[in-house]
Amino acid sequence: MQVIETLAEGLKREIKVVIPAKDMEARMNERLADAKDKVRVNGFRPGKVPVGHLKKMYGKSIMADLVNEILREKPTSILSERGEKSATQPEIAMTEDEAEAEKILTAQADFEFTMAYEILPPIELKSVEGIKVVREVVDVSDEEVNEQILKISESARSFETKKGKAADGDRITMDYVGKVDGVAFDGGTDSDAELVLGSGRFIPGFEDQLIGTKAGDEKTITVTFPEDYPAKNLAGKEATFDVTVKDVAAPAAIEINDELATKLGIESLDKLKEIVRGQIESQYGNVTRQKVKRQILDQLDALYKFDAPSKLIDAEFDNIWRQINTDLAQSGKTFEDEDTTEEQAREEYRTLAERRVRLGLVLSEIGEKGGVEVSEDEMQRALFAQLQQFPGQEKQILDFFRNTPGASASLRAPLFEEKVIDKLLSEIDVTDKKVSKEELLADDEAEEGDKPAKKAASKKKAAAKADDAAEGEEAAPKKKAAPKKKAAEGDAE
């Protein structure tokens, strides 16, 4: 077998492999000799079938199997012998001419194929002594814990019927019929619907017009659906709702005590506070870690400058670009709405893809040289977390990971990366800094991967997550299903 390098340009390599016809024929004859005592052919006793007859009957199929085996096994062994690692699966090419293929299968011509690939660049690890990060830490106050408990307790709040007019925070029980141009629309009708005024569950303007009503009142409310309303047939349209108020109830006071904890399914107030505090700390801890991780990656990015395999960059860019276009389509926006152009966005995200690939290779090298491994138990826990995200689809998810090549790598990669970050945190200079909640959640830049016009939005998302910190499954029972909710939104939500 001849292995000839035909291209060595940067990270790109191309190899031509030639296996002489006589070698292919010899391997085929070995298979035929082995099959001689096993096959049954009419007219011949077992073990007495002439090799020439077997060759005529099975030669081509055996040769085809040999070709497939070579294409499956040789690229790996060739890379190993050359001491190279391919960034992606090598691209294999062989003749597509039927006449030439026929000659190969009958051992009349040498078997030739080429393999094209990009090698992973050699990375010389540098000292991490100069890397310094600031880890922002927030102390969770008793006041914040109590505030979150009050938010959670809304699901357990009771209401008592009152006389007089409805005020903000009161619960109204009502019947309503929604109409556009005088015609009732699907999803706009309900009976005995309950709505807490000020909850923001209905479209803007609906709840405000119910303030001051009382039991027995009939009122027609006029509102306009938002332009970005999910139901296109209602978006931007004016609608009226004929409302009959059946009951007005005032909220009972909430006291943070053992009784409240019991209503929420927790054994005691102390245990409830412990759970809520832990959830808030976990949320803040996630934000802290992401900010620390970004500091580490920024400094690694400055330390390591090398060309990354273009195919890896292309694949990463395609993933990013697909998500960007999905986000734009869902929001009904264009690149111009985001104060950029498609060309500028492509350039920006191409740069981001290159950075991600390069840093991924650096972290992989650090982890490999540092002996970082992901255990089977950790993989199982990650898989279980995936299953929890798709209740009722457990079998499909398991089948996907079992039958899809590379699927398990999608579980392993983020685990490996986080363990490498942990390793770096144990080696670099880390300074803890006490900050307020507002300081922790403030950020001058959009997170890596955010669109330029989404910088402010990323802050709001982070703040929202922290505000909802205590609403975990352990402390809060599942919310009751809303009564055919959102009068003005109906079923089109």
TrEMBL record:
Top-level taxon? Bacteria
The EC number of this protein is 5.2.1.8
Q: Where is this chain's protein located in or outside the cell?
A: Cytoplasm
Write down the SUPFAM superfamilies for this protein, in alphabetical order.
FKBP-like, Triger factor/SurA peptide-binding domain-like, Trigger factor ribosome-binding domain
User: Which parts of this chain are annotated as the region Disordered?
Assistant: 436-493
Query: Which stretches make up the PPIase FKBP-type domain?
Result: 169-270
Reaction(s) catalysed (UniProt annotation): [protein]-peptidylproline (omega=180) = [protein]-peptidylproline (omega=0)
Record GO biological process: 'de novo' cotranslational protein folding; cell division; protein transport; protein unfolding
- Main location per the UniProt record: cytoplasm
Written domain comment of the UniProt record:
Consists of 3 domains; the N-terminus binds the ribosome, the middle domain has PPIase activity, while the C-terminus has intrinsic chaperone activity on its own.
Q: What family is this protein classified in?
A: Belongs to the FKBP-type PPIase family. Tig subfamily.
Question: What's the name of the protein?
Answer: Trigger factor
- The species this protein belongs to is Rhizobium daejeonense
Upper classification of the source organism reads:
Bacteria, Pseudomonadati, Pseudomonadota, Alphaproteobacteria, Hyphomicrobiales
Q: Which gene encodes it?
A: tig
